[in-house]
Amino acid sequence: GKGLEKYLENFKEYIAGDSKRKTSATCILCKEIVWHLKNATSNYSRHLQRKHKVEFDSWSKQAYKEKNNKMKQAFIEESLASSSGTEKYGSTHPPQIELAQMVFKNFIIELGLPLSITEKSAFIRAMSTVDPKFRIPCRRSITNEYLPKMYNQILNKLKKTCLAADFISLTFDGWTDRRVRAFYAITMHYVDQTGQLRAHLLAFNHISGSHTGENLFMEYDRVSTSFSIGGKIVRLITDNASNNLSAFGELVIPGHRPNDDDIQNSFDKQEELLRLPCFIHTLQLVVKDGLNDSECIRPPLSKVAEIAKLSHKSITIAEKLQNEKFSIPEAIVTRWNSQFLTVSKVVDIPNTLLNDLLNEQKK
């Protein structure tokens, strides 16, 4: 990024050998050599972030300030250029409302474009071509007006849907992002009055603190209570994590009253429970256990994994495979089908080609 040069020196570019298409630079602050691919700088900023946080924060603030000033200037210039001699729609004019909703729903929500798209010069010119009278909503208006309004509309619509549904199944899943922040999502599934299976996301929230069964149950109870669906839930699907078993393992279907004097067999008792394990996750565990128990398959699977890793690490191998119309996806150990696909792709490569590539890398 711009401005990083004051923290780095001795920039070098390599055009041959193992370092081909790579660059390196020496950190002025700690003298460590930082490597990166040509025409990219993310490793440099990442090094600064990890090793020199004070300097990184200073650089980030300055870069953001400069970028923000440029965007504001471009927005002003484009707005003045597009508005010269053209009277704009009022905020309540039908075309103004229609186009503003189109920008918000189609571009920002459905295409996932950032809110700052409305301040980009190219976008301003494009919308001026669509309708010169259209007044593009600024990012502040979208944040303070459009987003809260649409959120409330969707929330009210979801609550009406929950009220009309007779029986509801829920899926509950949690994960962490790259910054190790924990989230969970709850999705409802039901059959509408026309017989169509429907699904709607009820919650996608950050969860703080320890992910104990008690905390997960509190989040589940809070969401089910806010949508008034506690008595309509007939199934809850989760993965097989121990905290999910602790949180939901003993829940029973609403309305069911177990009779302690008439003990049913284990199958009937299982039918009373609200929670069901995710089939795909259970299948993954079965396949994983099977592979772990099969000693004869470990060496070839390990070899395939190394070949796949090498094809993503070595530019030379990746290019040669691409020239021969081959590719090797990296196996994801938590998805058995991805491991199967990786093995299949490696097996499809002719032995002569594969041996040549490996010999070149002295593997």
TrEMBL record:
GO molecular function: DNA binding; zinc ion binding
Cellular compartments annotated: Nucleus
InterPro entries membership: RNaseH-like_sf, Znf_BED, ZnF_BED_domain_contain
Domain spans labelled BED-type: 2-59
Swiss-Prot/TrEMBL keywords: Metal-binding, Nucleus, Transcription, Transcription regulation, Zinc, Zinc-finger
Top-rank taxon, per record: Eukaryota
Example of a GO cellular component annotation carried by this entry: nucleus
PROSITE patterns per record: ZF_BED (PS50808)
Name of the protein in its database record: BED-type domain-containing protein
Source organism of the structure: Rotaria magnacalcarata
Organism lineage: Eukaryota, Metazoa, Spiralia, Gnathifera, Rotifera
